[in-house]
Every structure is written in structure tokens, then in C-alpha cells.
Specification:
This protein is α+β, with helices and mostly antiparallel strands. It contains two helices and twelve strands. The strands form four sheets. A five-stranded antiparallel beta sheet has the order 8-9-10-12-11, covered by helices on one side. Strands 1-2-3 form a three-stranded antiparallel beta sheet, covered by helices on one side. The chain has a two-stranded antiparallel ribbon with strand order 4-5. The protein starts with a strand and ends with a helix.
Length: about 170
């Protein structure tokens, strides 16, 4: 099975070609950011954009996508490797997602999280959703934060929630 993973050490993903990586039996190789390779097809990316609340996200800023979800780097990361997984359809609240969107969103989060944990040599992952303004959601579009975690990244593990409150998605 082909998997995609982000190279988070690149200073600016959007400006660098080939920032996908494909894990194959013989190791890692870059994949053009103009296409996504799957086990059965190669789909050419059009000049489409994704939406994230009021923001337009260029296709070259998205490092993984499915028919219902996409993943991108958080522009204000709490820890190195902090990414967001979002439904393609603009949905403000989790309760308004369809069953298919929920399933795809979490399966995407699982795949992306697994790659992030391995790449960052993390021992754990934090998955979080801030669902609504009073929960700290700053962009009105459902999204899962995935944060690779290592021992000692915060003095107390729960400090990550304070760090999440201090930054805007």
C-alpha cells in the first residue's frame, strides 16, 4: 500500500516542489506535488483550491487528500509536525458531518498520524477537535489537530491545551 508523508523540516512546503514522499518497499522517494499516486491510479491535481472556513488553500499546500478529507500543515504549530485534517466540505460543527465524512476524517487522521509519529520519532500523538467558538475553534470549519508528542515536550502533559488556547489555528 502506498502512503504519503510530509517532510516537515522543509522551511516552506508551498514553495518547494516534490514535498510528498511515498513509502515503497525499497525506501522513500519524492512524488510530484502535481499528482497524488495511489495503489490503483494517479490523479492529476487541477488548479482547484480547498476551503478552510473563509480561507482558500491552494492544492500545493495540501500534502494528503481523499475524496472527503485533506491534510495540511498548521501555520501556527504548537509542536513540530502539528498538522490539520479537514473535511473537504465546509462544515462548521462536528455534529453536521455525514457518517461518511466522519469515517473518512478519522481514517485520514489515523494514516497521517501514523506517518507523523514515525517521522518525528514521537512516542505518542494528541488528536483534538475544538468544536465551536467556546471550545476555542478560531476557524469555522471542522478540523482535527494532530500533534506528534515526545517525553518532555511540555513540563506537564496537559500544558498542551494551554498552548492550543494561546495560538490561533
Amino acid at each position: 500500500m502506498v502512503k504519503h508523508m510530509l517532510l516537515p523540516l522543509l522551511p516552506s512546503l508551498a514553495s518547494r516542489p516534490g514535498w510528498f514522499i511515498t513509502r515503497i518497499s525499497k525506501g522513500l522517494r519524492p512524488v510530484s506535488s502535481s499528482s497524488i499516486t495511489t495503489t490503483t491510479t494517479t490523479t492529476k491535481m487541477s488548479s482547484e483550491h480547498y476551503t478552510f472556513g473563509p480561507y482558500k488553500i491552494r492544492h500545493d499546500e495540501v500534502f494528503y487528500s481523499t475524496q472527503l478529507s485533506f491534510a495540511m500543515v498548521n501555520l501556527r504549530p504548537v509542536v513540530p509536525g502539528h498538522v490539520l485534517v479537514c473535511p473537504r466540505r465546509e462544515v462548521k460543527r462536528f455534529v453536521d458531518l455525514t457518517a461518511d465524512e466522519i469515517s473518512d476524517l478519522w481514517l485520514t487522521a489515523q494514516k497521517v498520524g501514523s506517518q507523523l509519529e514515525h517521522y518525528h520519532k514521537a512516542s505518542s500523538l494528541t488528536f483534538t477537535i475544538q468544536d465551536g467558538p467556546q471550545a476555542g475553534q478560531t476557524v469555522p470549519h471542522v478540523h482535527i489537530h494532530i500533534l506528534p508528542r515526545k517525553g518532555g515536550d511540555f513540563e506537564r502533559n496537559d500544558e498542551i491545551y494551554d498552548a492550543m488556547k494561546r495560538r490561533k489555528t
